[in-house]
Amino acid sequence: MSDMTAISQPLKNVLQGLSDQRPVPLLPTLSIFAGHEVSEPQLVDFVWSANPNDGGLVQLRLALAKWDASAELDVEDELGAITEPGSPARRRAVVRALGLSESAESKLAELIPVHVDGAIIISKTFEPWYDKARNERSTLYWDDYEKYLSEVKKWPAPLIAGLDRSTTSVVERLTDPTRAEVKATKGLVVGYVQSGKTANFTGVAAKAIDAGYRLVIIMTGTIEILRSQTQRRIDMELMGVENVLAGQDASDPVVARNLDYQQDEEWLAGNFVRHSQQALDQPGATRIRRVTTHKYDYKNLPQGLSQLRYDRVDKSKPLNDPVNLNHVDAYVVVVKKNSSPLKKLISDLKPIQSGLGELPALIIDDESDLASVNTKDPKKSAERTAINKLIREVMEVVPRAQYVGYTATPFANVFIDPDDESDLFPSDFVLSLPRPTGYMGVQEFHDIDVDWDLVPKNFETSNELAFVRAIKGDPATDPANQRKELAAALDSWVLSGAIKKYREKYSDREFRHHTMLVHENVKNAAHDEAAELVRKLWDNGRFGSSDGLARLKARFETDFQPVMQARAENEPVPPSFSDLKSFIGEALAEMTSGGSNPVLIVNSDANVQQQQEALDFDKGKVWRVLVGGAKLSRGFTVEGLTTSFFRRKAGQADTLMQAGRWFGFRAGYRDLVRLYIRRDDKVDLYEAFEALLLDEESFREELTKYVGVDEDGRPIVEPRQIPPLVSQHLPWLKPSARTKMFNAVVQSRSSVGAFHQLNSVPPRNERSKHALNLSTALIPMLLCATKQVKLPYVDSSTGKRSSQPVLVGLIDADKFLSLFETMTWHPDYTDVIKPLKAWIIAATKDGRIQDWAVIWPQSRTGSDAYFVEFEELGVSAPIWKRKRRTEQRIDFTGENKRNILAAEAVPSGADVESLGRSETRGALVISLVDDRVQTDTQPTRDDVTGLLSLRAPDKAVRNKRGLIQYGVLVKAKAGAVSVDKE
C-alpha cells in the first residue's frame, strides 16, 4: 500500500464524521484509522502531493470549508474571543483545534483558501428549530446529495459548503414540521441567470424531507421540456436509484421497458445517486415516492391523494407528530405552471382536506416571477391570473404548506402587495445567493470598473473586445446586413466547435454539447424566417471548401487565436489554423449527425415536444443551432451555449434580464464564447444589459447594509420593507408591467459604509439647471479644495497599491448643507435625495457630522483627456468621461473606481495627508464630466456637468437601527405597509 493510499482513505473516513461537529485533534484519530502513526509532516506532504480529486483531500477541503463558514460554530482564538465565520482568524483557530502547527496552517491556507459565505439574507425573526432537528432526525438525503456533488459532479468543497449554508438558511426559516400550531411561511431565493438555482432547491428539498416534510411540490416554468429537465435532476440527485425503482427489479424486461431512464447515459453509467437499501431500512429514514415521472406531468390519481397513504402509526396523535412522521413516506410532485396539471393536483388534494391540516408540505416555485405573480389590476377586477389563483388554492388546501420562490429577477416578486396575506409576497425572508465560482455573467461580458486611463484596452483586459461582436440595424430594412452578420456568427460557431474537438484530443475535456442561439424576435413567423435563413447560410457556407476554409482561417487569426492566447488559461490552443483544419470536419460531422443541417426552431410546446429527442441534453450529445424566442428565455438551460445572436428588444427589465441565456458555466471554453448583440444609434442592447444587471448587483450590495439585527435583536430591515427600498434605491427601475406606488416610504437613510453616488442630475437639455448646480453649489465646494496631495488606495480587483492625485480641503457641515440644499436633481430622484438629506441634517445637528473633506480628482491621461478653464476656480479643470445611461434611465454611470477608493480613508477615520484624522468627517468626491452625446472633440464650459458622491463618517450611526427609517404616506393599522396598485 502506498503512503498516499495509507492516508487518503483513513483521512476521508475520519473527516466524514468529524466535519459535522467541532474540530478536535486530528492526528491521533487519523493514526487509529490508518493503523499506524501519522505525523504532521506526513499529513502536510499528502495534502500537497495528492491528486486534486483524491477522496481524502476532497473531504479535507469540504471539512475546512464547513468549519470556515459555520455561523453556529464557537471556535475561540488565542485570546479566547469567538472567531467570525469566513475570517483568517477562524481558520487559524480551526487548525489549532485540529492540533496542527502554525506552519501547517500556513501551508493549508495556501492550498485551501479560507471559504467566505456571500449569501445576503433579509429576514423576519424566526423560531430556531433546525439545528436541533439535524442532530435528532435523519440526514440521509442531504448527506447523500452532498456526497454526490463531491464524488460524482466533482464540485469544489467551498461550493458545497456554501450550498450547505444557504440551504440551511432557507430550511431553518420554514416552520418546524412537528410544530403543533399551523404556521405557513413565504420566502424568496434570488440567484443569477443560469447560475445553478436548481442545485439549491434540490438541497432544500433534501433537507426538508430529512427534517419531516412529507409533500414537496416543485413547480417549474411553463413548458414541458423544462419540467422534464427538472424531474430528471430531482430523480438523479435526490430520489436516487432505489426510489426511482420503488422496489422493482431493473433486470426484469417488463420493468426495464417502462423505466424512464433505460437509455439514459447517466443512469447506465451509474451516475444517479444511491442511498443503499440498508440506509433506507433504518428507523426514521424516509422513502420518497414519485408522483410525476420524466415522461409525464401530474395526472389524476384513481382514488385521489388517499392513494399516497399518509397513514398514522399512532392514530391518537396527529400526522405531524414525530411518532407518525417518521413512518410516513414523502411524495414529490414536479409540475409545470400550467392550469391543467395544477387543477388535477388540487382535485386530488381536496377530498382529504381535513387530513391535510396535519401534513407538512413544501412548495418550491422555480422562476417564481413567471406566471406566479398576479398581473390583474385589483381595482378593476376581483379576479386573479390563473396560475396565481391556483398556487394560492394549493396553499389553502394544504394549510401547513411553506412557499419558497426561486428567481434571478426578483423585482416582480418584491412588488407584490405585502399586506395581502393570501398572496405570494415573500413576507418571511429574501435570500440572495452568492455569485458562484466559475460563472460567466455580466462581469465577464462587460468591462466593469476598469479604469482605461491606467489600463491598456486589449483582448486580455477587455471582456467586450474578447467576447462581444456588435450587430446593427433592423433585418426588415437591411436584410443583406442580417445575412452577413448571421454568416459571421455561424463561422464562429463552427470554429469554436472545431477548437472543442481539438481540446478533447489534447486534454481530458469532453464537450457533450455545443450550441448556438438565435434570438431576434418573439413572433413565430419571424422564427420560421430566421431558421430558413440560417439553413440557407449553412448550406451555402461550404465550410470544408477552399473558400470556406479561407474564411474560417481569417476569423481564426483575427478573432479566436488572439483571444485564446490572452484568455485560454491552461486549455490547449491550436498553434495555427493548419493544426485545427482536420478538426473542422469532426465538428461538422457532429453538427449534422441528426440531418443535413443543425437548425432547430424552439418557439412552442408543440415543436419542443416534436424535437424532444434532438433537444434532450440529458440523453445524448446536442450540437445544434436553436432559433426561438420566449421558450428559450425562461428557465430552460441551453447546454454548451457558445455563440449567441441576440437582437430582440424587451419591454420590461425582468424580461430583458431573463433573455440573457449566454450567462452560465463554460468550463473549458470560456475563451470561445461569442455574443453577437445589437449595438447601433437606435438600440444598444449590450449597454441595456449592463445597466440592468448592474442594477441587480447594486441592489444586492445595498441589501448587505441592512442584513442582520440591531442591538435589540430586531431585524434592521424586514422583507416587507424591501419594496420602498427598491423604489428608493433604483427609482428608474419599473418593477413590472404595471406601475405600483407603495404606502411605505423611506424617511431617513444614511450613506454610512459606502459612497452614495448622486448621479441623477437634470436631463441633458436643461442646461440652465446644470449651470446653476455648478455655480451655486459645486464650485463653492471645490474652492475649499486647495491642497495637492496623492491619496493612496488598493485596487479591490487586483490588490495592487497605487495613489490618486487630488486637490483636498475641508468644508463646514452647516455650510455644506446650505450648498447641498440649492442643488437640483432629476424629478424622479427627489424621493432619493429627501431621506438622505434628512439623515445628514439630523447627524449634523447633533454633532455626528462636523465637517466634510472635499476631494477633487485631478489626474487625466490619454488622447481623450480634456481640460476646461473655470475662471472662478483659477485652474484648468480636468473633465472626466462619464456616460449618461440610456433606455429610460435617469443617471450617469458610476464614479471612477480609483476616485472612490482613494477617498475611503476619510470617512473611516484614518489619518489623511493634509487633513488629519477625524471620526466626525465625511467625504465628498466631485467630478466635472462631459455631458455630450459625442465626446470626441474639446468640450466647453456649457458642456460640463458636476457630479457629487458622498459618504458620511462611519461613526455617525449610533446603532444599526439608525441606518434607515420608514414611514407611511397614509396611516393605517400599526405596522401596515399598504400598496396602491394602478
Detailed description of the structure:
- There is one protein chain.
- The strands form seven sheets. This protein has an eight-stranded mixed beta sheet with strand order 1-8-2-7-6-3-5-4, with helices on both faces. Strands 10-16-14-11-13-12 form a six-stranded parallel beta sheet.
- Strand 20 (787-794) and strand 21 form a beta hairpin.
- It has 35 helices and 28 strands.
- The protein has four domains: 3-111, no CATH class; 120-432, P-loop containing nucleotide triphosphate hydrolases (Rossmann fold, 3-Layer(aba) Sandwich), CATH 3.40.50; 453-679, no CATH class; 751-956, no CATH class.
- Helix 1 (3-18) packs across helix 2.
- The radius of gyration is 30 Å and the shape is globular.
- The protein has 982 residues and is an alpha/beta fold.
Shape: globular
Number of strands: 28
Q: Report the sheet with the most strands, covering strand number, pairing sense and barrel closure.
A: 8 strands, mixed
Full CATH superfamily name of the largest domain: P-loop containing nucleotide triphosphate hydrolases
Q: Distance between the terminal alpha carbons, to the nearest Å?
A: 74 Å
Indicate how many domains the architecture comprises: 4
Count of helices? Answer: 35
Low-confidence stretches: 735-742, 971-982
**Share of residues in helices:** 25-40%
Radius of gyration: 30 Å
Classified by CATH, the class of the largest domain is Alpha Beta
Strand order of the largest sheet: 1-8-2-7-6-3-5-4
Strand content of the residues, in percent?
15-25%
For this structure, the CATH topology of the largest domain is Rossmann fold
Structural class by secondary-structure content: alpha/beta
